Amino acid sequence: MQFTINRQAFIKALNDVSRAISSRTTIPILTNIKLVLNDEELILTGSNADISIETTIPQSDTSAQLVITQPGGITLPATFFTNIVKRLPADNMTLAIDGLRAAITSGASAFTINGQDVQNYPQLPEMEDVQSLSVSAAQLVDIISQTKISASTQESRPILTGIHLQLTGNSVKAVTTDSHRLSQRIVTLTGTDADVDADVIIPAKAFNELQSLLEGQDRVDIKLAANQAVFDLGHTTFYTRLLEGNYPETDRLIPTESTTAITIEASALLGAIDRASLLSHESRNNVVQLSLKNGAAVLTGNSQEVGQVKEELGAQTIDGDDLEISFNPDYVRDALRVFNGKSVDVKFTSNLRPFTLTPAGETDNKQLQLITPVRTF
């Protein structure tokens, strides 16, 4: 195996597949990058058993300047190999394999590192009974960024670490909850005539890595099977396992009516919560309080050790019963960032029941964040 390639193009491909590689794995060879060279292209693969990323550099890609001398394959230590390539002195580099040793040359620099047999690397999963659809990359990024914040990071309930996707025709409903908050996004897919009926739970960690790969993409082809999802981004293919089990029924958690409501610019409320959390983060319980009384909205943050902050909010409207409610400011701050500076309706039913944030004037719950308050008495 031997090839010469533009170093910057190679680094981009290495960075892409490295997103799937973890230093903590029970399969030692998965700390390596797999390189396979045929007569037409170079294929790089990275995997941690849960997600796998494969990217292809074709000889026809003029920017990559790939020159194939001899086909073959090897796996090389991912971190070490990538660090070497990033530090090479010249614009181009050559990789030549002799047995299980790789010779890397660039300019006046030459490295030799040991690899492992490509045959020992696990095969990418084969898929049966596949449902396929094509989606806008921008819409997929929208779904991921607006729901991943509420996915649990606790492995004690693995099902809650995923994003629950329900696909019906050309509509996608995405939901996450960690039992303290909930995010929901409902999107009608554009530019597709797919008629898919699927109910899958994709790990939020996988979507995090996929989101980074979606930058600059136009459309994404998705294939769904019983235990795998595959996202085809042209020269890069992203594989992820699906989480098994039944996701909780979340519709019943969303209030259907409210007794108190406030409409406010998301950026204004976000700024006030940022300031209040300066004090709450110094307190043991990290809680801020919102008081809605006599047509005024006041946000308070306390720390017995440091002091207090109190700020009156410039709300557009305040309706309904007076209310005092306490909540984790970090949860609300994450939720507000989703709204990109729009005005939001915040609706309450009582100081102990979950409250919702939605775009001002919208009542269809297509873009919804739900937060459970904190009991302070």
UniProtKB/TrEMBL annotation:
Domain DNA polymerase III beta sliding clamp N-terminal per the UniProt entry, residue ranges: 1-125
GO molecular function, one term: DNA-directed DNA polymerase activity
Primary localisation category: cytoplasm
A Pfam family recorded for this sequence: DNA_pol3_beta_2
Residue span(s) of domain DNA polymerase III beta sliding clamp central: 136-249
InterPro entries named among the record's database cross-references: DNA_clamp_sf, DNA_polIII_beta, DNA_polIII_beta_C, DNA_polIII_beta_cen, DNA_polIII_beta_N
One cellular component term from this protein's GO annotations in UniProt: cytoplasm
Keyword field contains DNA-binding: yes
Segments forming a coiled coil: none
Keyword field: Cytoplasm, DNA replication, DNA-binding, DNA-directed DNA polymerase, Nucleotidyltransferase, Transferase
Location of the DNA polymerase III beta sliding clamp C-terminal domain: 252-370
NCBIfam families: dnan (TIGR00663)
Family in the record: Belongs to the beta sliding clamp family.
Functional description taken from the UniProt entry: Confers DNA tethering and processivity to DNA polymerases and other proteins. Acts as a clamp, forming a ring around DNA (a reaction catalyzed by the clamp-loading complex) which diffuses in an ATP-independent manner freely and bidirectionally along dsDNA. Initially characterized for its ability to contact the catalytic subunit of DNA polymerase III (Pol III), a complex, multichain enzyme responsible for most of the replicative synthesis in bacteria; Pol III exhibits 3'-5' exonuclease proofreading activity.
Subunit structure: Forms a ring-shaped head-to-tail homodimer around DNA.
Protein's name in the database: Beta sliding clamp
Species in which this protein is naturally found: Leuconostoc pseudomesenteroides
